[in-house]
Structure formats: structure tokens, C-alpha cells
Amino acid sequence: MKRPSNSLGNVPAEMAAAISTLRSLQCQNAEDAEALDYAVTTIETFVAVAIRVMRKSKPSKVRSAAMDVEIKSRLDGVEMVDGAA
Question: Can you give the residue ranges of every domain in the chain?
């Protein structure tokens, strides 16, 4: 029996756009508060879903995914919060 694949669709692109919006607005006086609110809401929704998925997953799978993210971040030179992954 083949396991169903989980397609994220354009979620990664939406997350990247939301993060980009937050970064571009963080040093300004939030001239476009609606765009900032939408970006924050997008990230909050994604995180809420991610937390539910993590709760239903085996701890070893969550640790493995966190390690993969940490390794990729280090290879890409992207700053991470210590202990987040």
C-alpha cells in the first residue's frame, strides 16, 4: 500500500514572501500595516499547523527534521536561534 504524499503546494513560497515582508518592514514605521498583519497571520497559521503535526508525529521524526533544518541553515549560512532546531 502506497502512503499518500503530502503536497505543501505553494506554502513554502508564501512563507518566504511573509518573512520577506516582515524583514522589509521591521526597520520602517510599518507604513503598510495591513501587509505586516497579513504576513504575521500567515506565519502564525503555519506555525499552528506545524505544532499540530509535530504533536501527532513520533519524537524521532521531529528531531530528525529539526536536525535537517539546522544542517541546511548552517550550510546556507542562515542565522538560526540556538535551541530552536
Answer: 11-76
pLDDT, tens only, 17-34: 887 787 777 656 556 777
Q: What whole-number distance in Å separates Cα of residue 12 and Cα of residue 19?
A: 11
Please choose, from the candidates 83, 61, 52, 54, the residue with its C-alpha nearest in 3D space to the C-alpha of residue 70: 83
**pLDDT at position 85, please?**
47
pTM: 0.59
Contacts of 21 (CB under 8 A, 6+ apart): 35, 36, 38, 39
Residue 11 CB neighbour total at 10 angstroms: 13
